[in-house]
Design goal:
This protein is α/β, with parallel strands linked by helices and 540 residues long. The chain has 23 helices and 13 strands. A hairpin with a 2-residue loop joins strand 3 and strand 4. It is globular, with a radius of gyration of 25 Å. Bound molecules: 6-O-phosphono-beta-D-fructofuranose. 6-O-phosphono-beta-D-fructofuranose (F6P) binds next to loops.
């Protein structure tokens, strides 16, 4: 039997087992199915797995040469085969002195840009770099989208308590104009730094916002020479940066071996570093580096955290047919974590051909979604508890929150713990009816209403506990999900590091824009033409 066949027959067995039975038959389950590394605690006991499940899944990972793939990524091989690129976001947080791509050691360049970033942060914070009228820079406006936005948004929101005194940061991603107008209406150009963050420096939304920001700045200040003090670029495209009018001395570079959704560790992280200070940014890199080491060095795959997380997710998608995963951070500071993981996993693994371009005959990335867990409880958790589909959940929480109130944190914790418990245990009809009777309801009514109060339970969840939401542990957490994504890409034999599925919409939008600008509905299908016509008529 192949491993997939073994997994299929094992699934037949497991699909009949309930989580509570798994606990009943293994007194040590809560110990055996938890892992911790460097302070991060991972409880995966509330999953439909046994030791045999993990054995089979790790065998599959070995058959797919997971370890060789990990070595290839960290070693600078061009594992992004369609774009012929190495994948080295890990080098950005590495302490190694040598990592080679095409025979060239990339570490000196990486370290030089880090040095440039650190010096720039120092100049801004110390007042050595002032605005054109001599005011201190206290407002950072990051203009970027996708990977040039989501990471910096997540990290600056999560680490707000660590911010440099007096620093503010704003993000402009959407092109509708509102984000730009709302932000610009509240800021002082003399103390503002515009950070144009774009790997390609061609992204339509970012370049439109950047141009409008520059026009606004010039209209306000009437000082073209002041651009040099107030606009910087984070990019791989020096030519486009220079054409935009930013001096290359004010550009912070990165390279095509850093994917957009993996780029917060690169120059794209400059808004983060400006907000929380260089030392905290360095701690963020160190946390990620610590997870990298764990991922590379833990040869026993059943003890490797990103591998376990990846294997469990794969098991649910491809065997249980659970097609979505809800990310539930129980901490307001991590509210943007679901959106971050959404891009990370869905842009990486939302593919239907394998590395060789052959259609796959299995499901790949699930739909990733979620919000702050405590808010979700009062919104979509109804479906999670009683809906017709099972949605596995990742709960993320921190043990100590020195920036929050203990009494509030106790309540937060009790909710997170209780939700995972309710997810697994559910409530039977008998219990529900007994509760109603105890409340004084008559038997006939209790028999009816109890039907609506049944929770089938047996809903799986992971609980990931951080000691605190600090730069270091946030770095570890993000790297954990990055590597989970990679593990799943290897299992599905897909190229995790391109994103060709975003191209068609961009291409068609250009054609539609031309039509709109020419006042015609152009040549499209009739539905598309009618919609364009609606817009043209309304905006006459
Ligand atoms: O359209 C998707 C995408 O290419 C993402 O992969 C990327 O993170 C985002 O757009 C922004 O790209 P850039 O940094 O080149 O502006």
């Amino acid at each position: 039997m192949t491993i997939i066949e073994q997994l299929n027959s094992h699934y037949d067995e497991m699909s009949k087992k309930r989580l509570l039975d798994l606990f009943a038959s293994d007194a040590k389950r809560a110990v055996n199915f938890t892992a911790s590394y460097n302070g991060l605690y991972f409880d995966y006991s509330k999953n439909n797995i046994t030791t045999e499940t993990l054995d089979l899944l790790t065998k599959l990972a070995q058959e797919k040469q997971l370890q060789a793939n990990i070595q290839a990524m960290f070693g600078g091989s061009k594992i992004n085969n369609t774009e012929e690129r190495a994948v080295l976001h890990t080098a950005l947080r590495s302490k190694a002195s040598e990592i080679y791509v095409d025979g060239k050691n990339v570490m000196p360049e990486i370290n030089a840009v880090k040095q440039q970033m650190a010096e720039f942060c120092h100049k801004i914070h110390s007042g050595a770099h002032l605005g054109y009228t001599g005011k201190k820079i206290t407002t950072i406006i990051n203009i970027g989208i996708g990977g040039s936005d989501l990471g910096p948004v997540l990290v600056t929101q999560a680490l707000k308590p660590y911010r440099v005194a007096g620093m503010q940061v704003h993000f402009i991603s959407s092109v509708d104009g509102y984000m730009l107008q709302d932000t610009l209406s509240d800021i002082d150009p003399e103390s503002t730094l515009f950070v144009i963050a774009s790997k390609t420096f061609t992204t339509q939304e970012t370049m439109t916002n950047a141009n409008s920001a520059r026009e606004w700045f010039l209209a306000k200040t009437q000082q073209p020479t002041a651009i040099a003090k107030h606009f910087i670029a984070l990019s791989t495209n020096a030519k486009a940066v220079s054409e935009f009018g930013i001096d290359l001395a004010n550009m912070f570079a990165f390279w095509d071996f850093v994917g957009g959704r993996y780029s917060s560790w690169s120059a794209i992280g400059l808004s983060i570093a400006l907000y929380i200070g260089w030392d905290n940014f360095a701690a963020f890199l160190d946390g990620a580096n610590s997870m990298d080491q764990h991922f590379v060095e833990t040869a026993d795959l059943s003890k490797n955290l990103p591998v376990i997380l990846g294997l469990i997710g794969f098991w649910y998608v491809d065997f249980f047919d659970y097609r979505s995963l809800v990310i539930s951070p129980y901490n307001t500071r991590l509210t943007r974590f679901p959106a971050y993981v959404q891009q990370l996993e869905m842009e990486s693994n939302g593919k239907s051909v394998d590395k060789q371009g052959n259609p796959v005959n299995y499901l790949t990335c699930p739909v990733i979604w979620g919000d702050s867990g405590i808010n979700g409880q009062h919104a979509y958790y109804q479906l999670l508890h009683q809906g017709t589909q099972i949605v596995p959940m990742d709960i993320i929480i921190a043990t100590s929150d020195k920036f929050s109130d203990k009494a509030h944190n106790d309540i937060l914790w009790s909710n997170a713990v209780a939700q995972a418990e309710a997810f697994m245990c559910g409530k039977t009809y008998e219990t529900a009816k007994a509760e109603l009777l105890a409340q004084g309801m008559n038997d006939e009514k209790a028999s009816e209403i109890a039907k609506h109060k049944v929770f089938h339970g047996n809903r799986p969840s992971n609980t990931i506990i951080l000691p605190e939401i600090s730069p270091y542990y946030l770095g570890m957490l993000i790297a954990l999900y990055e590597h989970k994504t990679f593990v799943q890409g290897v299992l599905w034999n897909i190229n995790t590091f391109d994103q060709m599925g975003v191209e068609l919409g961009k291409q068609l939008a250009k054609a539609v824009l031309k039509d709109i600008q020419n006042g015609t509905s152009g040549e499209h299908d009739v539905s598309t033409m009618a919609i364009i016509q609606q817009y043209l008529s309304a905006s006459k």
